[in-house]
Amino acid sequence: MGATHDDSIRITGAREHNLKNVDLEIPKGRITVFTGVSGSGKSSVVFDTVAVESQRQLNETFTWYVRNQLPKHERPKADTIERLSPAIVVDQRPLGGGARSTVGTLTDIYAILRVLYSRCGTPSAGEATAYSFNDPAGMCPECAGLGCTTRIDLDRFLDTGRSLNGGAIRFPPLAVGTAGWQIYATSGLFDPDKPLDRYTPREWDLLLYGKGFTVKRGERAYNNTYEGLVENFDRRYVKRDVSALSEKARAMVRGFVREGTCPVCGGARLTAAALKSLVAGRSIAEMAALEVTELSDVLRGIDPAEEPVGAAVAARAVTALDRLTGIGLGYLSLDRPAATLSGGEGQRLKMVRHLGSSLTGMTYVFDEPSTGLHPSDVRRLNDLLVRLRDKGNTVLVVEHDRDVIAVADHVVDMGPGAGAQGGEVVFAGTVRGLAAADTPTGRGLRRVTGVKADVRTPVDWLTVRDVTLHNLKGVDFRVPTGVLTVVTGVAGSGKSTLVSEAFVGAHPEAVVVDQSAIGVSARSTPATYLGAMDAVRALFARENGVPAGLFSFNAAGACEECRGRGVIHTDLAYMDPVTSTCEACRGRRYKDEVLGLTLSGRSVAEVLEMTAEEAVAFFGAGGPAAAGSGGDEAAGIERKLAALVEVGLGYLTLGQSVSSLSGGERQRLKLATRLHRTGSVYVLDEPTTGLHMADVAGLLELLDRLVDDGNTVLVIEHDLDVVKRADWVVDLGPGGGRRGGEIVYAGTPRGLLAARGSVTADCLRGSLG
Ligand code: ADP
Ligand code: ADP
Ligand code: ZN
Ligand code: ZN
């Protein structure tokens, strides 16, 4: 180890996950980038050691009472961790807040606008809460500030080709013969044998919205009880506390409703009074619907001579808005629901919040902040990291992007390999030193690849025409089949909208491999997800002459303490849940008697601790298969796990919880289950997320093999190494949001090199050194 500085975070003997007694110094007040192949141990150092210990030490400074309310962190496995400063983790986990949270509320810019309207809006609606859709004073009474309402879906509810007697009402509680149905069919108001599509407008209105008639039901007459179908449905299922309904009833009702824009506020979420109040000719909802850059221009236009107070408040909003633009999010609008943002956009929003704060002496920790960023935007990202540092903070970044690595004051390269082959610091020093180092990252930095010249010839074309969704301006999109197509463009240019919504919507046969959460139980592991676990259990059962169920971690053989999860979750009302290793089984998930049963000398827990790569060797030649029985099962397991290795996940253990995987890892895990098809159209959104330069080469080989096997591959990607290997490139732009939404180039990557007016082309030329 080099000289010891007082101004360094010092770690000795770190052993989380695969770390091999790592000793490390991280300079304070500097930007340190952690590099290395996936699974080498970057996160284990940065998140699981530094950030966790910092949080734990901070919690210890609170009183016993407060401490008891905070999540408990187990001390990371390390000998010493010294001179930490409080850490703030800026990751890609979804932003909370639910349906009420928008870009405007998350950044607090909407709160500034509310102050502006309460002071300067004409007519004023009142104080600042009168403009808040999260406050009863300001929220639209119809939709409670959500902007959308649940409404009956009449297309599903009624079959207008039929009569009431003929079953026109499809909703089961009002089926022919029921008491509910009688209200309509035997009321005397309608001809029960007349198909609904021949009703007069008046009859139609009566059927849906009529109210307060005396009606007959069978032989009896009822006073003023008639209620049209829509009124009745709303009262019973919509305008009430739906949590009182059974889950079954709710599921049934869900089939007959549709989410729609609130008819009262038109989606603006606010009361009529708030929407009438104008500043610079616009309502607050109209302001929130503008793109950030446009809003900034409008607010700048408020004249301090005429509106001294308003101009001062607006100036505060402008400062915050320009920060958003500065990080490449100028195409968003304040009314954009948080739930519709991508992980990368969310991370950059969180960054903006921290930039606005005046904290100093903190440690900021970032997880691959370049995700979703076009190479041309990475420069702005670097500016932000530098500004955080220059405010007196320590900045730690896990990153693969060579342009982000370039901004580092200090680099820590983990490796050399993944899992058991990693866990060491293979290089620590300057970027220049790393570029000369004999490590996978050093070699990756030195390698400059050219643009592919001999591209494949398309077999045919798949098309979507005149797409106008979100910002797309009547785009005709043609995707060649039998080749590798890459869609590029700056953030917000419309790539996801065009590919994941329009194209996939028009071609439902496409195999979409995305980064979304895998809807599986807390016990799911790569082995169960791939369907390899049944065969593993069968092999253990046959070998030991016991039932296979014993080896299932949700049945008889499971540890009773943790029910086979290996960990214990403690839920806290308002905090992140705390997870600790189960003491009864020490994380091994099984009862002791099950752990005594072996296959080729290994217990089931030991098999689950193997990486996919190790397990391929274990179940392959020389493994249980060679022992005689169970050859088919072993071969099946080997084949499924080999797919994991093929997609670059050979370092995952069979028993690792699927919920602990990153977005990029989840995407590759899904890909592993969908390999070996032919004639398919694969659609992937940024598959290089989380991949080291060395792993990108492996991913490219895999994509090439998919194409050679007779598939069509369509990817959204920023990584220029992927763009260079494409057969066909479609570049969207020229900018983001309203300034994007057009195809600025479609053709071969070679042709892109010569293209003008495309920022992707500029970056591609720049990358050739
Ligand atoms: P990187 O950040 O470089 O991709 P990680 O630090 O996430 O690498 O992982 C290093 C090793 O630790 C890998 O072998 C990985 O499978 C393992 N690992 C990571 N998280 C866990 C976990 N929660 N439980 C068990 N093993 C883990
Ligand atoms: P890219 O994938 O190139 O980053 P997107 O397709 O995500 O771009 O976005 C294109 C435009 O559509 C942007 O202006 C973005 O704000 C807008 N947009 C994307 N998704 C939504 C959504 N769910 N609701 C409203 N606007 C959206
Ligand atoms: Zn409303
Ligand atoms: Zn247990």
From TrEMBL:
Please give a single GO biological process term from the UniProt record.
DNA repair
SMART domains, sorted: AAA
**Record keywords: Metal-binding included?**
yes
Using the UniProt record, give the first listed, main subcellular location: cytoplasm
Kindly state one GO CC term assigned in the UniProt record: cytoplasm
Listed Pfam families: ABC_tran, UvrA_DNA-bind
Q: Which residues form the ABC transporter domain?
A: 4-441, 455-759
Q: Which Gene3D superfamilies match?
A: ABC transporter ATPase domain-like, ABC transporter ATPase like domain, P-loop containing nucleotide triphosphate hydrolases
Keyword Nucleus assigned to the entry: answer is: no
| Compartment(s) | Cytoplasm
Q: Name one GO molecular function term.
A: zinc ion binding
Keywords assigned by UniProt, alphabetized: ATP-binding, Cytoplasm, DNA damage, DNA excision, DNA repair, DNA-binding, Excision nuclease, Metal-binding, Nucleotide-binding, Repeat, Zinc, Zinc-finger
Origin: domain of life: Bacteria
What InterPro entries does the annotation carry?
Answer: AAA+_ATPase, ABC_transporter-like_ATP-bd, P-loop_NTPase, UvrA_DNA-bd
Q: Which family does it belong to?
A: Belongs to the ABC transporter superfamily. UvrA family.
Which PANTHER family does the record associate with it? Answer: DRUG RESISTANCE ABC TRANSPORTER (PTHR43152:SF2), UVRABC SYSTEM PROTEIN A (PTHR43152)
Q: What is this protein called?
A: UvrABC system protein A
Organism expressing this protein natively:
Streptomyces paromomycinus
